[in-house]
Design a protein that fits this description.
22% helix; MaoC-like_dom; single chain; Thiol Ester Dehydrase, Chain A; five-stranded antiparallel sheet; 134 residues; alpha+beta; MaoC family dehydratase
Length: 134
């Protein structure tokens, strides 16, 4: 049963191979994500992970872990505060911010932190529905 204040966290990282596969799946071949030489000329200095690939971690958690199987992921708002890089480990943190019992929905904060220094990388909120968990 999900309740106000309930939380969940998961560590994740992506390899360059996974980023390259996401380029193929999404059609987003922006060289900022896969071309080291190009990325070196940008303020980021190396390839960065697609924001949508990072958000896929949220989708996995909402559908499989928290609230879990049977959930419908209705909405996501995200602010990407800092770039995320291949090979670094991050911590995604989720917390129930509000519940609407009548609609069987909840708003869940979605945050990503750099594991090493704890810096907030992505800040957001999601809406989910699950007819039996609330």
């Amino acid at each position: 049963m999900i309740h106000l204040g309930a939380s969940f966290e998961i560590e994740f990282s992506f390899t360059q191979e996974q980023v390259n596969e996401f380029c193929k799946i999404s059609g987003d071949f922006n060289p900022l994500h896969w071309d080291e030489d190009f990325a070196a000329t940008t303020p980021f200095k190396k390839p960065i992970i697609h924001g949508a690939l990072i958000a896929s971690v949220f989708s996995k958690v909402m559908g499989m872990d928290f609230p879990g199987s049977g959930s419908v992921y209705l909405k996501q708002v995200s602010e990407f505060k800092r770039p995320l890089y291949v090979g670094q480990t991050y911590r995604a943190f989720f917390q129930v911010a509000s519940i609407n019992d009548l609609k069987h929905t909840a708003e869940i904060t979605t945050q990503v932190f750099e594991l090493e220094r704890g810096k907030l990388m992505v800040d957001g909120i999601a809406s989910v529905m699950h007819p039996t968990l609330f």
